[in-house]
TrEMBL record:
This is Endonuclease/exonuclease/phosphatase domain-containing protein. InterPro entries: Endo/exonu/phosph_ase_sf, Endo/exonuclease/phosphatase. One of its GO terms (molecular function) is catalytic activity. Residues 30-139 form the Endonuclease/exonuclease/phosphatase domain. Pfam families: Exo_endo_phos_2. It comes from Araneus ventricosus.
Length: 244
């Protein structure tokens, strides 16, 4: 028996994407998107917003051609800063492998360009696999979909409404061109996404005396082991730590 799913189309100019929506057993859905962004030009986070506003759970992975010190050993680039700020502003997560995914003739240019950005998925792991005779290594992702972090029992959210109004005025057109039913549906989707994005970028949430949900022991053990190996590799550059 196959996995129940259907194709989803997201218009984008600054990156290529292929997406499906999977029907989960608990009557929920998750959007899964494969992304490739060419090396030149800047990624448009508004296009990413359309993807991540489409569902309560989203997994987007691929070659972003973006570098940042939080997931890449070498230098950062502008796209890396754009994605890093966008992820933090929206409370998403980046899942990246320990090993570089791109290998150059110069060691200094090795980089982690392939990673995942996830929404409402708390437990995940990524491993780069040295399996192909090419400059990019494939990445194996493992996600625990049933372990979504709950909404805090008590929280305080504050919104900067001046910032909200400024974002709305810049990102939502006042009079979109409507010539068909599809134009109406697209305008509604863009409007809803714009509102959600503006709220996320303008609000800060602070938990108050909440109990943090513990991850399963096998996940926390893997995270601890991964962090220890990463520290050893960064401090010593000892080759076995690179592939451990």
């Amino acid at each position: 028996m196959g996995i129940a799913h259907h194709e989803v189309n997201f218009d984008s100019i600054t990156f290529e994407n292929s997406a499906i929506c999977i029907d989960l057993p608990n009557k929920k859905q998750i959007t899964v998107v494969s992304i490739y962004r060419p090396p030149h030009g800047l990624i448009d986070t508004a296009e990413l917003n359309r993807i991540f506003c489409s569902n309560s759970q989203v997994i987007s992975f691929g070659d972003f051609n973006a570098k940042h010190s939080s997931w890449n050993i070498g230098r950062s680039n502008r796209n890396g800063h754009l994605i890093y700020d966008w992820v933090n502003n929206n409370n998403f997560s980046i899942i990246d492998p320990l090993q570089p995914t791109y290998f150059s003739n110069s060691y200094a240019l090795n980089a982690t360009l392939d990673f995942a950005v996830v929404k409402n998925t708390s437990a995940a792991e990524a491993v780069a696999i040295n399996a192909l005779p090419r400059d990019h290594n494939p990445v194996w992702f493992e996600f625990l979909l049933s372990n979504v972090l709950p909404i805090p029992l008590r929280s305080l959210t504050t919104t900067n409404w001046n910032r909200f109004q400024d974002i709305i005025s810049r990102n939502i057109p006042g009079n979109p061109t409507i010539n068909s039913i599809r134009d109406i549906e697209e305008a509604i989707a863009k409007f809803e996404c714009g509102i959600n994005t503006a709220i996320n970028l303008s609000s800060k949430t602070k938990s108050i005396n909440t109990v943090h949900r513990k991850l399963p022991p096998f996940i926390t053990n893997k995270i601890t082991h991964r962090n220890n190996i990463r520290k050893r590799w960064q401090h010593t550059r000892y080759p076995p730590y690179k592939t451990a």
